[in-house]
Amino acid sequence: MDLVNHLEGRLLFAVPKKGRLQQATLDLLAGCDIQFRRETRLDIALVKNLPIALIFLPAADIPTFVGEGRVDLGITGRDQVAEHDSTLPNGETSGVEEILDLGFGGCKLQVQVPQKGDITEAKQLIGRNVVTSFTALSEAFFTKLEGVAPGTKLQTKIKYVGGSVEAACALGVADGIVDLVESGETMKAAGLKAIDTVVESTAVLVKSRDSNNDLLNLITSRIRGVITAQKFVLCQYNIPRSGLAVASKITPGKRAPTITALEEEGWVAVSSMVEKKRVATVMDELIKVGATDILVLNIANSRTD
Ligand SMILES: Nc1ncnc2c1ncn2[C@@H]1O[C@H](COP(=O)(O)OP(=O)(O)OP(=O)(O)O)[C@@H](O)[C@H]1O
Ligand SMILES: O=P(O)(O)OC[C@H]1O[C@H](OP(=O)(O)OP(=O)(O)O)[C@H](O)[C@@H]1O
């Protein structure tokens, strides 16, 4: 089938074709019941149950396609959006709009130098060689550091490499690099240390500035629901009515806790959404104020404000 001729009338949704963001993105699509089958080697897949076509692209290229309005929606890193926006002529508004922080793919774009060298702050790299895959963001960073107007030729020499950036210092190509750091393992193994942060990033859902329709809003709402479900758990407990006011402060919920009367006089049952990462502390605090029968339940999916 010639897929390109089947795109008419479909919402085009760009997703990473490989790399760090791909698996979490595919899981997210499954959570939204976006069903598709990708033929081997094809970068376009038609969604079976919705008028959507998925376009598999490198994460770095997604902001360009979205920004130029060639695709309507995309998932990529905030760092890639920032890099794309930094290439725009001064004053030009970006065609890429962030709609949602997806919470995964967390990393920092950092200035790194050899652990054993004499450089301890980014300023010392002015006039020296810096290697990166993020040339526009690095140029913007050093423009500020050099205190010159945007567009001025920099003293710092910024060179592009497509990958394995961390090898550049050891090979004598760079005095410092600007590269992504998550666990810090790659940086440590290459004998580097971070001395400054250019951008903090997570995966984001972006849309083209001029794209807006019911399907785009529906997909956004489904994705928001899945992300919320991943981030929150449902906490249920019983508590004497006298302790309700203080317990409600511990579990205020997204809007407000749900309170139900128990058959036992003077007791109520409370049900409230709690951020997963806070749940252990919340349970400790609930015990202290007299809550009993505390249960924590996973949320399979959600639609909340
Ligand atoms: N170590 C990491 N931890 C978490 N997120 C990362 C990490 N490295 C990259 N990312 C995120 O994933 C995005 C894509 O990077 P990744 O290196 O996986 O892309 P790629 O398309 O495979 O490119 P390349 O071929 O250049 O490696 C980055 O822009 C960043 O937002
Ligand atoms: O702090 P860490 O958890 O070690 O992650 C950071 C590494 O991950 C990314 O590279 P990737 O492995 O995607 O390969 P690449 O260098 O070819 O881009 C990034 O460019 C760093 O090298």
What do you see in this structure?
Helix content is 25%, strand content 30%. With 305 residues, the protein is of the alpha/beta class. The chain has a 6-stranded mixed β-sheet with strand order 2-3-1-4-11-5, sandwiched between helices. A 5-stranded mixed β-sheet has the order 8-7-9-6-10. A 4-stranded antiparallel β-sheet has the order 13-14-12-15. It starts with 10 loop residues before the first strand and ends in a 7-residue tail after the last strand. The protein is globular. The longest helix has 18 residues, at 214-231. Helix 3 (78-86) packs across helix 4. The relative contact order is 0.14.
Which percent range fits the helix content? 25-40%
Percentage of residues in strands: 25-35%
Rg over C-alpha atoms, rounded to the nearest angstrom: 24 Å
Beta strands, count: 15
Q: How are strands sequenced across the largest beta sheet?
A: 2-3-1-4-11-5
Average pLDDT metric: 95
The run of helices and strands is: EHEEHEHEEEHEEHEEHEHEEHE
- General form: globular
Number of helices: 8
* Ligands: adenosine-5'-triphosphate, 1-O-pyrophosphono-5-O-phosphono-alpha-D-ribofuranose
